[in-house]
UniProtKB/TrEMBL annotation:
Name of the protein in question: Solute carrier family 35 member F6 (inferred by orthology to a human protein)
Protein topology in the membrane: Multi-pass membrane protein
Annotated coiled-coil segments of the chain: none
Cellular localization per UniProt: Membrane
Organism encoding this protein: Nippostrongylus brasiliensis (Rat hookworm)
Length: 270
């Protein structure tokens, strides 16, 4: 019991920490100047993020290999479990979500180059509202093949990898920041998936909102962001809204204390 509790706390802390580092490393790279120009390559940063997410697949294959090795050493006893294998699935099932993810990530990093890290993270809190509305109107839409080709062409035209590589060669610390982005997103996704599996999706959403405060607090000394007291109210309302949306506050209290009184009224009773 104690081991499970320690593991749960560790995973939650890992999720908040690596999620915060991911945004801070991306903003750190944006602050570097090479030949008088800022490092302004959001598509390269998005590429690094997806490389980091791909590392989770490598970790999964390693764990699967270890399990198969242990299974082979059991000499195939009658009571032994079946051989571990990769579940069969259609890779095309991930095509649309993957393309949508890379577009949204690239757009977010474009926004990060234009604003502070904490403001960027706060605006990501609107994801719940946008996802809820878009899931109603857009899930049945079909994207034509020529539209996918057009978007890929736009991404390739905006990436500018040669200029990015030139700046990285002249300022090696940019490579350090990009590496931090890649590694932190790998651990963040691992921790987030583990939290969703062992706890709940609600817990993951709440923890994701906590890193907003961590990023804001770290941005003050690291990036010289100006302290605005009004932001504290904004953070409080943001987190409060997250808690209400995920039925942690207001809802349970209303059902426990208010609804029973309403049902006691004769005209409202069941």
């Amino acid at each position: 019991m104690l081991h499970n509790r320690f593991y749960t706390i560790t995973i939650c802390v890992l999720m908040v920490t690596t999620g915060s580092l991911n945004t801070l490393c991306a903003k750190w790279a944006d602050n570097f100047k090479v030949d008088g120009e800022h490092f302004d390559h959001p598509f390269l940063q998005a590429f690094c993020m997806f490389i980091g997410e791909l590392l989770c697949m490598g970790a999964y294959l390693i764990i699967l290999g270890v399990r198969k090795y242990r299974w082979n050493r059991t000499k195939h006893d009658v009571d032994s479990e079946s051989e571990p294998q990769i579940p069969r699935f259609n890779p095309l099932l991930f095509l649309i979500p993957a393309i949508s993810d890379i577009i949204s990530t690239s757009v977010m990093y474009i926004g990060l180059t234009l604003t502070s890290a904490s403001s960027y993270q706060m605006l990501r809190g609107a994801l719940i509202v946008c996802t809820g509305l878009l899931s109603i109107f857009c899930l049945h839409s079909t994207i034509k093949a020529y539209q996918w080709m057009g978007m890929i062409s736009v991404v390739l035209g905006l990436a500018d990898p040669i200029h990015a590589w030139h700046q990285i060669c002249k300022q090696p610390m940019i490579a350090v920041a990009l590496t931090g982005t890649t590694i932190s997103i790998a651990f963040f996704n691992f921790a987030g998936t583990t939290v969703t599996k062992n706890l709940s999706a609600t817990t993951r959403t709440v923890l994701d909102s906590v890193r907003t405060i961590v990023i804001w607090a770290a941005s003050l000394p690291l990036f010289g962001q100006k302290f605005i007291p009004l932001q504290l109210i904004g953070f409080a309302l943001l987190i409060f809204g997250m808690f209400v949306y995920n039925d942690i506050l207001i809802g349970p209290w209303f059902r426990q204390h208010i609804l029973p009184r309403i049902y006691d009224i004769p005209c409202f009773g069941p």
